[in-house]
Amino acid sequence: MGKSIDDMMVEDARQKKKRFAEELTREHKNAFDQLQRHAGVSMGRHPIQDRYKDGVGRDWIDECEQVLDVEQFRGAMIFTIGKYLRRLGKKDAVTDEVTKISDYAERWRVYEERHSDTKRR
Prior knowledge:
Strand content: under 5%
Low-confidence stretches: none
Order of helices and strands: HHHH
Number of strands: 0
Number of helices: 4
Mean pLDDT: 81
Radius of gyration: 19 Å
Shape: elongated
Largest sheet: none
């Protein structure tokens, strides 16, 4: 026997509630990210130096997030993280470089959460 109309309506309401909660969570994360960006601190707690910011406090990664498609952004993050891995211990202290790598990885993770409907092929 199939589901009753009441059961289908209850299930539909549950699904709508779940989607609303997920969207609200994304909005809170986005607001938190923006607050941290304006405070000059990225998700990995690595300060964004003024020389890297534009007039509204965004750095190049923030800009890329706005203008690149998902695959281009992933490529940019792979390149950026790879750059720090390759020079590890050659320019700055290893702990500083690892902090930068962690920062970029966390920002990438947050980006992927926002674009979770776009799966890697």
